[in-house]
Automatic annotation (TrEMBL):
The lineage of its organism: Eukaryota, Viridiplantae, Streptophyta, Embryophyta, Tracheophyta. It comes from the Eukaryota. This is Uncharacterized protein.
Length: 387
């Protein structure tokens, strides 16, 4: 592209192109294969007051509407990213004026809306990522039946919207959920939009998602983590945990793939007593579940090294009953207190119930009592990393 023409395109100056051959306009390219329209649109820091430049060039050279640069970006991709809704409408109207594909019957407008760039992002991906709610509304209403698939990173537009922190985030989410007939909830590594909502602590969005698709509570990522696992780990408030369990309390039984930890285990190692109370109150039987080493939730409460959390757990009857339960090596939670050399001597030797823990819970499989471990410093118990 000649430098004079490049500058004219940046400025939206039509004059230098007046005498240029119409059939060759789409051959004017930058090294990145940006067309006249790409150059003009990239240079608009705010929404253009007039769409004359775009209108006139599309009238003279309709192929510019679908022409992509080296990154696979069409003019619609750019305008969805920048949020220029008036230009988005012009692009769609121009596409609507073209005949539909004779084989598929799909209109040119829908073909344009479904085009993907080099990372398989559609214009809706771009609009969602940049919190362009007005553009999201236009795009979803134009093609409501299309289920926008994931890009190369595994992100769907809805997942991107829920994960974002943009100012118009809530409206973007609502537009997608309201206007799209068939919504894809998927995200990277097996996650879903509900995982994303749990991670950022957005219980209101979580409720909206579950009203549309209740089974999301049971969908796990590639590590076997459910949205409840995420809520227990990335805690913002117990409200997220409440919303998930209100919808499906059985989610508390889901254990991760490798280490077999439930959300209760995760809450315990994170020292989140309130979350543990909420989970146990709604699904008391989940206390019986142990991980791949036979550790129960009380073992994990000890591993958090937070004495107050452990004390809170002992006030919950279902968790207090786990005091005598042994893991695969025969260690009770009190063996673990001794192994970690925690300064919790009152729990081991001056119990309020009037008996000594090291005498009550006997020996593990190495024939060691709690006292043996406490005094002998047998560091045989490895604490599982919460990650």
């Amino acid at each position: 592209m000649d430098p004079v023409l490049f500058k004219a395109a940046e400025a939206g100056n039509i004059g230098p192109f007046e005498n240029y051959q119409t059939c060759s306009l789409n051959q004017l390219l930058t090294p990145d294969e940006n067309t006249i329209l790409h150059v003009y649109l990239k240079n608009q820091s705010s929404e253009p007051e007039s769409t004359d430049f775009v209108d006139k060039f599309l009238e003279r050279c309709p192929p510019l509407l679908f022409q992509a640069n080296k990154r696979g970006e069409t003019p619609l991709h750019l305008e969805a990213r920048y949020g220029h809704s008036n230009v988005v409408k012009v692009l769609i109207d121009r596409a609507k004026a073209l005949p539909a594909d004779p084989e598929s019957g799909v209109t040119k407008a829908k073909m344009m809306l479904r085009m993907t760039n080099g990372e398989r992002d559609t214009a809706l991906h771009e609009a969602a990522r940049n919190s362009r709610s007005h553009v999201v509304e236009i795009l979803t209403k134009e093609d409501p039946e299309f289920s926008y698939p994931a890009n190369v990173h595994g992100e769907t537009p809805l997942y991107i919207a829920v994960s974002s922190l943009g100012q118009e985030r809530e409206k973007v989410i609502d537009e997608i959920l309201t206007n799209c007939i068939s919504v894809d909830y998927g995200g990277p590594n097996g996650r879903t939009a509900l995982h994303a909502a749990s991670e950022v602590g957005d219980h209101e969005t979580a409720r909206k998602l579950l009203e549309k698709e209740k089974k999301l509570t049971k969908t796990t990522d590639e590590n076997g983590w459910s949205p409840l696992h995420y809520a227990a780990y990335y805690l913002w408030s117990t409200r997220m945990v409440e919303v998930l369990l209100e919808c499906d309390a059985s989610a508390a039984y889901i254990a991760e793939t490798e280490k077999k930890r439930t959300a209760l285990h995760i809450a315990a190692i994170r020292g989140l007593a309130d979350v543990m109370k909420e989970i146990v109150s709604r699904c008391p039987a989940c206390c019986e579940l142990v991980d791949n080493r036979g550790w129960n939730a009380l073992h994990y409460a000890v591993a958090s090294k937070d004495r107050k959390v452990f004390e809170e757990c002992l006030r919950i009857p279902e968790l207090a009953r786990l005091q005598t339960e042994k893991d695969d090596k025969g260690n009770t939670p009190f063996h673990l207190i001794a192994a970690l050399s925690l300064n919790w001597g009152s729990f081991l030797f001056n119990d309020s119930c009037g008996y000594s823990k090291w005498q009550t819970y006997g020996l593990n499989k190495r024939k060691l009592s709690i006292n043996d471990i406490y005094l002998g410093e047998f560091a045989e118990i490895e604490v599982i990393n919460p990650l």
